[in-house]
Amino acid sequence: MPLLEVSGLVAGYGAISAVKGIGLSVNEGEIVTLIGSNGAGKSTTLRAISGIIRARSGRIAFKNSPIDRMEPHKIVSLGISHVPEGRGIFHRMSVLDNLLLGAYQRRDNLTSDLDRVYTLFPRLKERLSQPGGTLSGGEQQMLAIGRALMARPKLLLLDEPSMGLSPLLVETIFATIAEIRAQGATVLLVEQNALMALEIADRAYVLESGTITLEGSGAELAENDSVRRAYLGEQ
Fold first, then answer.
1. What is the pTM of this model?
2. What b/e string do you get for 67-96 counting C-beta neighbours within 10 Å, with b at 16 or more?
3. How far apart, in whole angstroms, are the C-alpha atoms of residue 191 and residue 128?
């Protein structure tokens, strides 16, 4: 039984349906990636899963229970954390306070979780008292992921984590995603850097104009001629 199962999902904004009846699944312990061009519906899919927008139709199930009519804070409490495109950190709040906000629903001791974040992202520990807005783009991405991990998610939704980062920082972020999976989390990754995403993904889906056109293992899609032409820059 998949940890997350989406079927017939239709979602969008105003009169526009950005996602048009898609289905996908994520098994426990996997990294699954959604690749596609701008406007394909990738971010909309994540927002519907996390409850930020309401699905118009279809079913979203987590651990075989429907969540498509649930409020976002309830979805977080079930074990789904969403790192949005653009990071969404609180610029005037300190790094530590941003991290603590990720655990706002918890009432237990947070020391081990903070230590885990500091181990994954040593730079954050060096900047705990700094306002989040003074961090570099890469450090802000680390903070956004660290904040999400403070909720102890079973499923981590990552939306464009490499956007705007230098090649060296992109490698660091992707290595961290692999380490997060090794520590027991499951990851659904939306990413325009298709090459890096397919390298770490167990399975992948290609989303085009709101519909899924291809699916398979990360290795299979990395070798697919149409994927290589459209997303890997090959002729």
1. 0.95
2. bbebeeeebbeebbbbbbbebebeeeebbb
3. 28
